[in-house]
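Exam prep: given the inputs below (a chain plus 6-O-phosphono-beta-D-fructofuranose), describe the expected output before reading on.
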Amino acid sequence: MIYRGGGQERTNSVDRIAFDRALAELGAHRDEVAPFDFAAVFREDSARFSAFSLRFDDLLLDWSKTAVDRRTMELLAELAAAAGVEARRDRMFAGEHINATEDRAVLHVALRAPRQAAMAVDGRNVMADVHSVLDRMAAFADSIRSGEAKGATGKPIADVVNIGIGGSDLGPAMATAALAPFHDGPRTHFVSNIDGAHIADTLKGLDPAETLFVVASKTFTTVETMTNAATARKWLADALGSEAVASHFAAVSTALDRVAAFGIDETRVFGFWDWVGGRYSLWSAIGLPIMLAIGPARFRDFLAGAHAMDEHFRSAPLRENLPLVFGLVGFWHRVVCNYPARAVIPYDQRLARLPAYLQQLDMESNGKGVLLNGAPVATPTGPLVWGEPGTNGQHAFFQLLHQGTDIIPVEFIAAARGHEPELQEHQDLLLANCLAQSQALMKGRTLAEATAQLVAKGVAEGEAAALAPHRVFSGNRPSLTILYRQLDPFALGRLIALYEHRVFVEAQLFGINAFDQWGVELGKELATALLPVVTGASEGDGLDGSTAGLVAYLQAER
Ligand code: F6P
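Solution:
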């Protein structure tokens, strides 16, 4: 199938004619190279690994096990040029309002830039503001971590409970789990769900006198967070009296007036700005729980890792630029090959929350159906993103990855070194499994091989012929591998920034706005309207038959 751009106008610096031509050529090229025989291309091209992998310091991105060749990369580079990806990247770094539907700049890169950098929004350098909040966070974190800032009864803080959801939860929750070997502060907990079970289970076993709540919400209106924060305040006030609230609450928000109304002492309120999207906010004060857990110096290493990737993204030529190449291969899989999903499999238990974090980053950014100008898209947009750590996933859903009817590109992520030198055997087994899975996806197993293997095990020929088809793996299934030396704050920051910029690159190729999220609004509005119906305060006249039936059941069983 030859892909066509659909003739819509794309805004920005897009050369639509060149884009549609490159896209059509990519479709034709995909058909020409199919079926792409991985074993053959590795045999014929001894330089394939070096041609289809990139390094940035110790970070390695390998896409040699995907069905791309040198021509594919040329066409993808033409596509990126036609889509104006680099020009738009520069507009992002320049603080332009590239989030057009919300008329906002997109400058999370400023949050990890050094103090002396010059990054401006609407003509104003924001670096002084960024570092002033960082310095205040560091002073606060130091005072909590050292025990100098105590709870109302004079006990030091032993547990921090972050109350937030979406971007105000997933980033800090993912990063604090990832950086467990560096924890030397209070224990951190995360409450996000409106389900009372979440806060109830979290508070069980915590001592109010030793607990600090961080209420994290960009808007300070999100119903989940406000409800959980009110429950936490009551829990604390019931135990220690309402005057104790001041020493047990801090807040992170862009809506400082609403925080003040909630009653949190302004010395414990840390702001950020509307040019920081929720799912890009863990670098801002939203990262406070990370800083409380690992300390300000290591938090700055985390920011430095992301900044290193920003500089690479901003300056490396297209073909040597990891986020650009990562995005181009992603586009190849999603649009040219029409694969509906991608699996992210960290071979690192501490990255267990990475797939969930990337679900918001990728799917809330690129799960869009209209172009920047509001016209419907003509190509698929963001894929379904999912995953679990290896090796657990191998014993759950890898069956489908190997033999299912959909092809799902897999992203393997692993560190060369673990943090448990005394458990080196575990690390060796982990890495062997990681490599084996990408190899198995690529190599597969033919019917003849499966039959021969059964016969070699002593199975009679007739029986072997019957069983062998179940043991065939098509192979030639694409995967990418990301490796780095060790998961430390710097490496984590760099990895997350790589993924952020990949999402950006893909969005420019899709022609969509990655920085709004109108798709989450309708459900919120309907939940507000349904609340009185669920409680029985209103009849719910005019409800659709299905919802009315469900409400009737719930009311009967309440
Ligand atoms: O899910 C929608 C969303 O707006 C996310 O983008 C955001 O991260 C989350 O809700 C939480 O919003 P807030 O930080 O304003 O509470």
